[in-house]
Design brief:
about 0% strand, about 70% helix, mainly alpha, globular
């Protein structure tokens, strides 16, 4: 939860950058949620129309985790949930 002070200014440009990055990596997130299969990071980057290095940087900055770890954790959690 974010508490804003009355006189505190929000850096709208930083919010726009984060929002734009989230929009750019959204196809990879949706792909990870939509499949049980391993997703190569290069495939996810191509799906987002980003170079691999840009994808890695932006995904890590937005999600605070690498794409391979993100997709693996989701697959493992989904597997455990479906098994139980």
């Amino acid at each position: 939860m974010i508490f804003l002070e009355k006189d505190r200014k929000i850096d709208k440009s930083a919010l726009n950058v984060a929002s734009n990055r989230l929009v750019r990596i959204q196809p990879a997130i949706q792909l990870a949620f939509g499949t049980k299969e391993f997703i190569p990071e290069k495939y996810a980057a191509n799906l987002c129309n980003l170079s691999l290095s840009t994808f890695r940087k932006e995904f890590g900055e937005v999600m605070n985790i690498s794409f391979p770890k993100f997709s693996l954790r989701y697959r493992v959690k989904k597997s455990i949930h479906n098994a139980g």
